[in-house]
Amino acid sequence: MRSLYIDGAWRDSASSEALDVVNPATEQVIDTVPAGAAEDVDAAVAAAAAALPAWSALTPGQRVTHLAKALELFNARIDDIAAELTRDMGAPAVFARKVQAGLPALMFQTYIDLVEESGERYFGGERVGNSLIVREPVGVVGAITPWNYPLHQIVLKVVPALLAGNTVVLKPSEVAPLSAYALTEVFHEAGLPAGVFNLVSGTGPVVGEAIAAHPRVDMVSFTGSTRAGTRVSQVAAETVKKVALELGGKSPNVILPDADLVKAVKRGVADVMRNTGQSCNALTRMLVHRDSYEEAVALAAESAAKYAPGDPADEATRMGPLVSADQLERVRSYLALGVEEGARLVTGGPEPVRGRPDGYYVNPTVFADVSNDMRVAQEEIFGPVLVLIPYDTEEEAVAIANDTVYGLNAAVWSGDPERGLAVARRLRAGQVEVNGGALNPRAPFGGYKRSGNGREWGAHGLEEFCEVKAVQL
């Protein structure tokens, strides 16, 4: 069994219980990690608190030096880390290299670049009238991360938190924890000072709640389900600590009548099938003008059929398994529900995937004739499931798009970029793509409404881990 990483050393957990790590493509146990206890969190927080004064006293440039060494080691073993992610959570090999491991490397470098470019000014303060406005570290940060992009979400929290001068206690998802261990090994080898970074594996109800409730944890950054995020907020409220939440989504993809329909539908389907649909920002509701609706349905079915589930270790595989047996059961239940609600099953469905007797595989699925009040249109399924909803006017499309408790992501397609931008401005979401606008690692990412609060990525993500102080002169 693996160990915990506390105060710069690997150590046994106070708990004797273990958690199996299962390869979702084979259903075989490939590792075990400790089911940590509250006592382990106490030890990790004590180590982080003890390390905080010296770490926060370093200059931004000195902290960059530490993290740059870690990134160099990370990049040297990125192929091995990608292979671990394929085994750990079922990401297809190509996707694991380019996204599951490649995107964290990009974000790691982006944060280093930001601090190198403007760290002294950013943390040194700015004059506003007779005041000096300075940004200081929050303190001890508890990071609780999910299984769908396990390494990416860790980097988005741990790297900016450390660069801002905080110390960290990380609880990775117990479903896919192995990349967290790989990053911890990198930090250890890079010589990060003892206590600056700590890892406690375990479950949410035990380790996660202990972190959120701990009186010496100054901030909790959580990514996961809205239900779990609500619980983190409730527990953290007892000590009035800062809480940042990146939660669920049911994102709309508005295809206007003047859009390139073929391109919009193809790109929209690809977005939903990415990571086997296990993306909080997936564009799972496709809104199409009624005049083009049936053509869009046919195009979506054709595109979805190209994502045949396969062995994630195979370089040709575009879509791997879901991450766990629980997730498979959840997604299949929604596929059955869609039919019960009266949606038209265009392709896919809840039946077992042909030729895949082992592994947590599910069929890529497209539903048509969906109304926005159906549960499959309102609830986050977290699987490769697309619903198509018709509309008659632009006003109706905007109303349908905004008729959700979520507000994480959205998209607009139009032949007129200005019209696309105008509609994008009306959508209640933290991020909106217009005509497939490219990913920007320096742009903020986060949600409105029940998709959470706070922002990750770029300077906004760095500032999330800072307190702001006004010094009157």
TrEMBL record:
InterPro entries the UniProt entry points to: Ald_DH/histidinol_DH, Ald_DH_C, Ald_DH_CS_GLU, Ald_DH_N, Aldehyde_DH_dom
Q: Name one GO molecular function term.
A: oxidoreductase activity, acting on the aldehyde or oxo group of donors, NAD or NADP as acceptor
The domain of life is: Bacteria
So where's the catalytic machinery, residue-wise?
E246
The residues covered by the Aldehyde dehydrogenase domain are 10-471
User: Which keywords does the record carry?
Assistant: Oxidoreductase
Presence of the UniProt keyword Oxidoreductase in the record: yes
What PANTHER family does this protein map onto?
ALDEHYDE DEHYDROGENASE, ALDEHYDE DEHYDROGENASE-RELATED
Family under the similarity heading = Belongs to the aldehyde dehydrogenase family.
What is the protein named? Aldehyde Dehydrogenase
Q: Origin organism of this chain?
A: Nocardiopsis dassonvillei (strain ATCC 23218 / DSM 43111 / CIP 107115 / JCM 7437 / KCTC 9190 / NBRC 14626 / NCTC 10488 / NRRL B-5397 / IMRU 509) (Actinomadura dassonvillei)
- Lineage, please? Bacteria, Bacillati, Actinomycetota, Actinomycetes, Streptosporangiales
